């Protein structure tokens, strides 16, 4: 059997062999990518330029938006180009780089969401000690830990995946170099080490999810004891956007990874992948703009003396 580890690359099958369907998905991906690009850049710009949004919460939100930009840019632009050119070829080194970057961003995003939940816990449950605990040093160290975990996860996952030998047809039934699809090309049971790494990373992800869940149990318990209705509303306005993002990212990715994968992927299988690779970074800016009171108040353009909320712009784009 041929060993494609030593050959030039793989063939990404994408969504369909029909050019008209490929063009349709390319157009959809382009719209979603533009929405994600504009939304995340606006959040980064707003939180960087507005000094009233300099708290740790918005410091982490800015980096979440940057991470979302990286996350969606790893797969979507290449997929759009492949569809437009009707050529799904990807070289071995491009596949390795894409796999590494995708895993890095996924692990880092989960770690960052965990750090952000801790920030909300300190802000609501320990408000008098918030500025002492969440100082600049803590924020920087937390961010370094996020990127370190992402790099470590990316290196482990990529090294374990591409240490195996690939046999048979070098065809990947996905619009990017997806690790489960790559493992189907394994010559034998060499992917056992990769499954071990995947299990370890899944365990860490589950630990992060449990940590976030426990954190929000304490947060909601504290919020419900706030006597002022306005105080409870303010607390919920800062917590619900973050919790929505966590649920969206974790639920869609977990459902796709845990469901049985068929030998011949269907359109629904591809769409499930889109739910955790494309939708979270696209919807995150919309969720934060619509649910976060400060972002709704600060995110606006001045045009002819009138204020135009970015939330309304996002809604208009999504309704097009």
TrEMBL record:
InterPro entries the UniProt entry points to: GPCR_Rhodpsn, GPCR_Rhodpsn_7TM, Olfact_rcpt, Olfactory_GPCR
Domain of life, per lineage: Eukaryota
One Pfam family from the record: 7tm_4
Any one GO CC term of the record: plasma membrane
Subcellular location, principal: membrane
Transmembrane segments: 21-45, 57-76, 88-112, 132-152, 196-219, 240-258, 270-290
GO molecular function: G protein-coupled receptor activity; olfactory receptor activity
Subcellular location: Cell membrane
Keywords, comma-separated and alphabetical: Cell membrane, G-protein coupled receptor, Membrane, Olfaction, Receptor, Sensory transduction, Transducer, Transmembrane, Transmembrane helix
Domain G-protein coupled receptors family 1 profile: start-end pairs: 39-288
Membrane topology: Multi-pass membrane protein
Recorded family membership: Belongs to the G-protein coupled receptor 1 family.
Function of the protein: Odorant receptor.
Protein name: Olfactory receptor
